Amino acid sequence: MSATTTLAPLPAAHRVAIAPVFGAYAERILRATGIRRGLCLDAGCGGGYLGMALAAITELRFVFLEQSPSLLSLVDRNLKTHQLGDRSQTQLSSLSSMPLERESVDLVISRGSAPFWQDLPGVFREFRRVLRPGGQGCLWASSASRPAWGCGSRAPEALARHLWEAGFRCFEISQDEVGAWTRFTRT
User: Fold this and answer.
1) Which 3-state string (H, E, C) describes 74-123?
2) CB of 51 within 8 A of CB of 62?
3) Checking phi first, is residue 41 left (phi over 0); if not, alpha (psi -120 to 50) or beta?
4) Cα-flanking dihedrals φ and ψ of residue 159, to 5°?
5) Segment (H or E) for 26
6) Of 93, 33, 35, nearest in space to 64 by CA
7) In DSSP terms, which residues pair with 65 in a beta bridge?
8) Strand partners of residue 139
9) Quick check: 150 and 173 in contact, CB under 8 A?
10) Which residues of 3-16 are buried (b: 16+ CB within 10 A; e: fewer)?
11) What is the dihedral of CA 157, 144, 125, 91, to 10 degrees?
12) pLDDT per residue over 34-87, tens digit each?
């Protein structure tokens, strides 16, 4: 993948096939970060729906990273269906030890996977390692998983501590009617 490659957004016909809720999350990420080009890591991507929705409104290239082989197979099928193969790759990996180069990623996104991360401090250290200076991350947990974010190592105070200890000095943690949002920037 070349950092200078310009890619067209996903055609409008494909946008309808991706659940509308993911489109709203993608738009929120785009408004919050302004990142339209570069490399995006969809961390703990599940079926890859958030990344595909973001692909529909940006020129980003993607790495869909997932530790479940069956979910990664689903991502591969979805990428083929949505004709995103030339803008994406899949990686089978744990988030606490990602096979990505240092300072290679412009944007990290994740929807709903954070409550299941075993090593939250390690994941945030990895995000800082792979993000370029000025790169950003947007993590989202649904209202249904809010209890997991509100206790133990995922309480807002603990998340803030983990981000700080990983080296992030610019971050925001908030909750609204749809869930908990964590946004961070590598300085």
Assistant:
1) HHHHHHHHCCCHHHEEEEECCCCCCCCCCCCEEEEEEECCHHHCCCHHHH
2) yes
3) beta
4) -60, -45
5) helix 20-33
6) 93
7) 43, 91
8) 110, 182
9) no
10) eeeeeebbeeebbe
11) 180
12) 999 999 999 999 999 999 999 999 999 999 999 999 999 999 999 998 888 899
Pairwise CA distance, residues 119 & 20, whole Å? 31
No. of H helices and E strands in the chain? 7, 7
CB atoms within 10 A of CB 57: 16
Nearest to 105 by CA among 169, 164, 33, 46: 33
175-180 mean pLDDT: 77
Check residue 95 and give its pLDDT: 94
Structure tokens belonging to residue 147: 């209890």
Q: Which run of H or E residues covers position 163? A: helix 156-165
List residues bridging with 54 in a β-sheet.
Answer: none
Q: What is the pLDDT of residue 142?
A: 62
Query: What sign for the dihedral angle of Cα 70, 72, 73, 74?
Result: positive
Query: To which residue do tokens 């946008």 refer?
Result: 15
